[in-house]
Design goal:
The protein is an alpha+beta fold. It folds into two domains: about 140 residues, Jelly Rolls (Sandwich); about 220 residues, Collagenase (Catalytic Domain) (3-Layer(aba) Sandwich). It contains nine helices and 17 strands. The strands form four sheets. The chain has a six-stranded mixed beta sheet. A five-stranded antiparallel beta sheet has the order 2-14-13-16-11, with no helix packed on it.
Length: about 375
């Protein structure tokens, strides 16, 4: 059985600064400054790996699914007990306990681990499904012997874990670590990284710090790939980074370029405790006439995401928008009025911060204008 999740991204690559997709009615910069992609690679991730691992040597030990297969509920067995367990801060976690432990000790120990991890209100939305270890692969949509230790399904907010805590040891990780990794996926599922899906790219601050967008467009990373490029999947690298907030000594076996630095860990903490809630907005306003032909403002962009400029000016005038970054033209409008829109579906930095200049240019006519700029941050 193979499950697929696709991660379409409309994007374009600017040689030294932004990645974006210009929309109808706009013009891209000259060749060499902007290479336009109508759609960046639409990654369809397979949920099962080939025997022996993926093309990059990956042997996936967990799996991210859109939804759990029907077999997952049956795998838990008829003796499943639903437990609503509270952690110290009062949050209640739902556990579908198929461990066979009548005392609830296994379920309680798992929830105690989850409660000790960095978390927000998303913990109260989680369901933990404990299944007999022999049934785990089936519960996660795979087959016996494929090496999967756990899985997470974004649709349903459910992680599936084995009843036997010692089963993780053969992969060099403890079950506590597996719980932390899977919870990292749950955090991502409840954070926005618009327009990129957080489960595949990671949350906004971490993904922007690691410049996942441009790394994806250049082929370094493979969002959503749970098989052939598992260890280059940013969603898995995010979950590994998150787990290291609690288990810093665990050896790093994923993408070398994403091995967590102090800055990456700080970004991950921010994604947990102070997540991105939406784009910033600023306004350039003024009056253009024969003496004042151009008005400009400059922004410092530190996050990847959508970028747009919406101009409103006199009906009788012809004002255009021009955007530059890193000393290169990014795009401009060339209409015959003063009500233009220049929009980038995806603006991706190649440096920690980019200076982006927005200009409103008079072609003819005169009068007041406002240009509203929206960007990730």
């Amino acid at each position: 059985m193979t499950a697929r999740r696709s991660c379409p991204i409309a994007a374009a690559v600017l040689a030294s600064a932004l990645v974006g997709a210009t929309l109808a009615g706009t013009s891209a910069a000259p060749a060499g400054a902007l290479s336009v992609y109508e759609h960046a690679p639409a990654v369809a991730a397979t949920a099962t790996a080939a025997a022996g691992g993926g093309a990059d040597g990956s042997v996936p030990w967990d799996r991210v699914l859109a939804r759990l297969p029907v077999a997952a509920r049956a795998a838990a067995g008829p003796a499943t007990v639903v437990r609503l367990l509270k952690i110290a801060d009062g949050t209640t976690v739902r556990v579908e306990d198929g461990s066979g432990d009548a005392t609830g000790a296994v379920a309680t120990s798992y929830v105690n681990v989850l409660g000790s991890l960095p978390h927000g209100s998303e913990l109260g939305k989680l369901t933990v499904r404990i299944v007999p270890t022999a049934a785990l692969a089936t519960a996660c949509g795979g087959s016996a012997g494929d090496g999967v230790l756990a899985c997470y399904a974004g649709g349903g907010d459910t992680m599936v874990v084995p009843a036997d805590a010692s089963s993780a040891g053969s992969n060099g990780v403890s079950l506590d670590y597996v719980l932390a990794h899977e919870y990292g996926h749950h955090v991502a599922a409840h954070r926005s990284n618009a327009p990129y899906p957080s489960l595949d790219f990671g949350p906004k601050y971490w993904a922007s710090y690691e410049r996942i967008c441009v790394g994806t467009l250049t082929g370094r990373y493979a969002p959503g790939d749970e098989a052939s490029a598992y260890r280059r999947n940013p969603g898995e690298n995010w979950a590994e980074t998150y787990a290291r907030l609690t288990f810093p000594a665990q050896p790093w076996t994923f993408a070398p370029a994403l091995k967590p630095t102090a800055g990456a860990l700080a970004a991950a903490r921010r994604d947990v405790s102070d997540p991105w809630t939406g784009p910033r907005r600023t306004r350039l306003a003024g009056t253009l006439d024969a003496r004042h032909r151009v008005a400009r403002t400059t922004l410092t962009v530190t996050l990847d995401g959508a970028f747009s400029v919406r101009l409103a000016g006199p009906r009788s005038a012809d004002f255009d928008i021009e955007v530059t970054a890193g000393g290169k033209a990014v795009g401009h409008t060339s209409g015959h009025a003063a009500n233009d829109v220049l929009s980038f579906a995806s603006a991706c930095r190649t440096k920690p911060s980019e200076r982006v200049t927005i200009a409103v240019v008079r072609r003819r006519g005169a009068g007041p204008f406002v240009a509203d700029v929206t960007y990730a941050g």
